[in-house]
Write a structure and sequence with these properties.
Strand content: over 45%
Shape: elongated
Largest sheet: 5 strands, antiparallel
Oligomer: single chain
Distance between the termini: 54 Å
Structural class: mainly beta
Number of strands: 7
Radius of gyration: 20 Å
Strand order of the largest sheet: 1-2-5-6-7
Length: 111
Amino acid sequence: HNTDYKQTRELKVGFEHWLTDWIPLRYGFRYQQFYLTGYETVYNFYHQTYVTKENRPVFYSFSLGVGYMLENIDIDFGCEFGKRDYNLSPSERYDELLQRFMVTARWKYGK
């Protein structure tokens, strides 16, 4: 198997906007390079094909979340949608999708 994983760049940007004193709205963007960068050509075992430097995929995703804050309880809902597309030839196209949903709850005790 390939062990030539190289350092990649990942950019994450997020914003938080308070709709009221107790409802925050959060949204963000993520960019990630493909992690196999050492070789000119990499064999993709999952798709049984080769990936060259010219068609290495880049991953993009967008996130959105909202919270609800009470005196002792915070509840957050979030989702992230991402996509990585690449063509290995004019007849071979791969679309990889990410859909992630999150729910968190916090209970504050004491002061």
